[in-house]
Amino acid sequence: MSKALEILQAIKERLATIRVAGGYQTDIGVRVYLGREFGNDEQDPVPLASLHDGSGENKSDMRPHAGTNTWARSFVIEAFDVCDPDNPLVKAHALIADIKRAVFKDGGLDGLVMNLRIVGDRAMPRAAGSKTVCAQVLGAVEYLEKPTAP
């Protein structure tokens, strides 16, 4: 497994902890996917979260150890859930808060990365009459990688 996939798996595990029974506002941890695309419509099984890999960039100016490269990698977490059609932002912001609390609870992903940070968040527009809402949290990590063991 690549270091990038190992990091994504660790984020997925944190997302899976998001349950009302665990003190969160939503149950998006019931279904967590790696890279699966969903539309914001009534056919998708909600609640759910999907983690999407962004781009990786070699930070060649940062080499703390010989034989390693420092990488910066972005990712996007999308969450879908049923909402009040008249007030979808209420659920969207609950999703955002739950994701931030679960994923970004420390800056190092239990020592797996050097830096884990929030880049942004947004509540996505939804179709008129839709009973589901989508929220996104954008994040980034910095980590060391050996070219011989990516």
SSE layout:
Blueprint: H1 3-15, E1 32-34, E2 48-58, E3 69-82, H2 88-103, E4 115-123, E5 132-145
Parallel strand pairs: 1-2
Antiparallel strand pairs: 2-3, 3-5, 4-5
Region (Disordered): 44-65
Protein name: DUF3168 domain-containing protein
Biased composition (Basic and acidic residues): 54-64
Instruction: Specify the CATH architecture.
Output: 2-Layer Sandwich
- Number of discrete helical segments: 2
Sheet of most strands:
5 strands, mixed
> Mean of the pLDDT scores?
88
Q: Return the CATH class.
A: Alpha Beta
N-to-C SSE series? HEEEHEE
- Which structural class should the secondary elements be placed in? alpha+beta
Which percent range fits the helix content?
10-25%
Share of β-strand residues:
25-35%
Instruction: Give the domain tally.
Output: 1
Q: Flag low-confidence runs.
A: none
Give the CATH H-level superfamily: Phage tail protein-like
Strand order of the largest sheet: 1-2-3-5-4
Quote the CATH topology: STM4215-like
Tell me what the structure shows:
- It is a single chain.
- This protein has helices spanning 3-15, 88-103, and strands spanning 32-34, 48-58, 69-82, 115-123, 132-145.
- By secondary structure, it is α+β, with helices and mostly antiparallel strands.
- It has a single domain, classed as STM4215-like.
- A five-stranded mixed beta sheet has the order 1-2-3-5-4.
- Strand 4 and strand 5 form a beta hairpin.
- The protein is elongated, with a radius of gyration of 16 Å.
- The N and C termini lie close together (8 Å).
